[in-house]
Structures are given as structure tokens and as C-alpha cells.
Design goal:
Elements: H1 11-24, E1 31-32, E2 43-48, E3 55-58, E4 64-67, E5 79-82, E6 88-90, E7 110-115, E8 120-125, E9 139-144, E10 149-155, E11 167-173, E12 176-181, E13 186-191, E14 197-200, E15 214-215, E16 218-219, E17 234-237, E18 243-247, E19 253-257, H2 258-262, H3 268-272, E20 276-279, E21 284-289, E22 295-299, E23 304-308, E24 313-319, E25 330-331, E26 336-340, E27 361-367
Parallel strand pairs: 1-24
Antiparallel strand pairs: 2-27, 3-4, 4-5, 5-6, 7-8, 8-9, 9-10, 11-12, 12-13, 13-14, 15-16, 17-18, 18-19, 19-20, 21-22, 22-23, 23-24, 25-26, 26-27
Pfam families: MRJP
Subcellular location: Secreted
Protein name: Major royal jelly protein
């Protein structure tokens, strides 16, 4: 999910490009609704005293599939299954999480996952260990959650990567996988039927971090003491597969039609002009989308959760000091929103190489179906 590096010295042209891009394709004005008062209730769904969970998927029977990337500095499997009684198992099995396993059948650092309605779990592995070394090639893994078996693997072609690449986010739709490179700004598109891979929007302003990440008013720093820069790593796809939403953790949010990304006749010039500035978000730990198209954002700067409806109404539904760097949430078909608190600002990557997480880390559940509709 995160690869950090100092800000480039020539940031002004990129910032100017963002300004030009925003002027060319202005977003429709968002409509604010009053914050929920009181905040939506949060129920403890799971806790960890050893692992930093940054993303999850919730199976229909209530079990959770949990992501713990290697760069968080926590021990244990990078992908785990939590039974309803709290028992944890390496997922899909111990072999896929074992250092002795051949690279093509090993998960080193899961960065992102997506559970689709047919029970397919899409898992993105950067292959980069806690020491920032590429141990295995980056890959996309498809798992049948009904049988807990890997059904296919796509190795990311080295030709679509760059020196310093770190694949960070994935969403699948329309027979394609859309993968963000947070190390070197870019979007990788894989045709899942034919296996062809393309790198698009290379160094595009919409994928490039233009400001540092702030939490509690403090600028996050990498292990070298520089301001941590993380390019686009947050990604979501609309329920109908028509739109891709993405942003660097620092924001803002952009939207782009998936038809443009899958059409090989579209020129790079046409594609460069296509992203739309969709919402000027605060720094986000992650986002997810409900069946009705409502986006839910985890605001790491204030410990808040916002919703942003398909009608462009936004509303804060939770503000709570327990939400210390809420990470990528997940929402079920019946509107149960699961939010992992990751405290990433206390992990070695953002804390001068020191682990200072205050255990336990908690996953909270919010019943969004019980919330009143936002009214302006």
C-alpha cells in the first residue's frame, strides 16, 4: 500500500498540471449535509494484539479475511482468515504464507484485496518484504473463497513497472484488473482473459501526491526523516463497473471511466485529459463503495468517517478518537461497514523506524442501513 520517498524538487510543474487539469474538467459542486449528531454507533467486531490490519473482506458467514502488509513491521501471515470465534489461520493456507514456498505460490506482502459477489477474492501482492526488498515478483492472485483455493495467478509484467514501483491497490471489473503503482505514479491494466498488460497515465498529476500526509497536524515522515510521499494507492470501482475512483492518501479524489481504460484505441493524449477531479478529500486511510454507489471515506486527519452519495451529498457520520488512522474499510451487501484502525503513524514506516502501536488494534462495525438518509 505504501512506499515512501522524499518529495521531488520539481513539484511546481506537477501542481500546475493539476490546476490546469482541474480547470479543464471541473467537478460538480458537492452538497454538504449536517454531520450526524450523535455519531453513528461503532461496535467492536475484532481485535488484534500482534498484527496491523490495513484492509479486510467479510464473507457471507461472518468470517473475515484480513490483510497485514509486510511493511507494517508486524509478524504473522500477510493474509489471514478470522473465524467467527476469533481464531486466525493463514489464508488461503500456511503454504502461501511460508518463506520456504516457491515465489510463484507465496504471498509476501498483500497490499489490497477485493471480494466480489460470486465469492471470488482478488489479492494483490507487492512481493516486497519489510526491508523494502523485492522478494518475489508482484502478482495478482484469484482465490475461490468457497473452497479456499487459488484458481489463477497473474504475475505483473516487469515491462509495466518502473524502478521504485510498488503496486498498492486493485479493483476488478469488466474483465480487467486495475492496479495502482504508489511507488512511481501509474495505473496498470490487465486483460484477465488474454493476459495482456498495459501501463497507463504514467506520472499523471491525478496519481501523484502533491502534498504530505498529515495526522493530528503532524506531517508524516519516512524512516529517513523526509516527508513521506505516497502516490495513488486508494482505489474503488462503482457497483456497475463504469467508474474507477482513485487518489493518493493525501487526496484529492479522481474519477475515470473504465471504458476508456479498456479501449486500446484510446490514445495516451486522450486518456491524459480524461480524469475528473471528483471530490477534494482530506487525507484518507481508505475508501469503499456500497451497493447504491455511496462512497465511504476514512479520514485519518480527524479520525472521522464520511459518506459521499451518488448524488454528491457528503456527510460526516462518525468522529471518534478511537479511529486512529482508520484504514481501508469494507461494506457488506446489507450495509454493515467494517473499519480497521491501523495506527500507521505509529508503525516503523512512518515513525522513524520504531514500532509504537498501542495495542489492541480494533475493527469496528457500523450499521449504515440504520442511519437516516443525509438531508441538506
Amino acid at each position: 500500500m505504501f512506499r515512501t520517498r522524499p518529495f521531488p524538487s520539481r513539484a511546481m510543474p506537477a501542481a500546475l498540471a493539476v490546476s490546469i487539469l482541474s480547470a479543464a474538467v471541473p467537478a460538480l459542486a458537492a452538497k454538504p449535509a449536517p454531520p450526524l449528531d450523535p455519531s453513528a454507533p461503532m461496535v467492536v467486531a475484532a481485535e488484534s494484539t500482534t498484527q496491523v490490519w490495513t484492509a479486510l473482506a467479510v464473507l457471507p458467514d461472518g468470517r473475515m479475511i484480513l490483510v497485514s502488509p509486510a511493511w507494517t513491521g508486524a509478524p504473522g501471515p500477510t493474509l489471514a482468515l478470522r473465524d467467527t470465534d476469533g481464531t486466525l489461520h493463514p489464508y488461503p493456507d500456511a503454504g502461501w504464507n511460508a518463506p520456504a514456498t516457491p515465489p510463484e505460490k507465496r504471498l509476501v506482502s498483500v497490499e489490497s484485496l477485493q471480494l466480489t459477489d460470486d465469492g471470488t477474492l482478488w489479492v494483490l501482492d507487492s512481493g516486497i518484504d519489510s526491508g523494502n526488498h523485492a522478494v518475489t515478483p508482484a502478482k495478482l492472485v484469484r482465490i475461490d473463497t468457497k473452497t479456499a483455493s487459488v484458481t489463477q495467478t497473474w504475475t505483473i509484467d516487469p515491462t509495466v513497472l518502473r524502478s521504485g514501483s510498488h503496486v498498492a491497490g486493485v479493483r476488478v471489473g469488466k474483465g480487467h484488473a486495475f492496479i495502482l503503482d504508489s511507488g512511481v505514479p501509474g495505473l496498470i491494466v490487465i486483460d484477465l482473459d488474454h493476459g495482456t498488460q498495459r501501463r497507463l497515465l504514467d506520472h499523471h498529476p491525478s496519481l501523484t501526491a502533491q502534498r504530505p500526509i498529515t495526522v493530528d497536524g503532524h506531517v508524516m515522515q519516512d524512516t529517513t526523516g523526509h516527508a513521506a510521499i505516497v502516490h495513488a494507492s486508494e482505489i474503488e470501482i462503482s457497483p456497475d463497473g463504469q467508474w474507477l475512483y482513485y487518489q493518493p492518501p493525501c487526496g484529492p479524489l479522481y474519477r475515470l471511466g473504465t471504458d476508456l481504460l479498456t479501449d486500446t484505441t484510446i490514445t495516451s493524449f486522450e486518456l491524459d485529459d480524461s480524469p475528473t477531479l471528483w471530490y477534494k478529500t482530506p487525507p484518507l486511510g481508505g475508501m469503499t463503495v456500497a451497493r447504491d454507489g455511496t462512497l465511504y471515506f476514512d479520514d485519518i486527519s480527524t479520525g472521522s468517517i464520511f459518506r459521499f452519495t451518488a448524488g454528491r451529498i457528503y456527510q460526516r457520520i462518525v468522529v471518534d478518537p478511537r479511529l486512529r488512522w482508520p484504514a481501508t474499510p469494507a461494506i457488506t451487501a446489507d450495509g454493515q461497514l467494517y473499519v480497521p484502525t491501523a495506527q500507521l503513524d505509529r508503525t516503523p514506516r512512518f515513525n522513524h523506524g520504531q514500532m509504537a502501536v498501542q495495542w489492541p488494534l480494533t475493527i469496528y462495525r457500523i450499521d449504515t442501513a440504520a442511519l437516516p438518509a443525509p438531508v441538506r
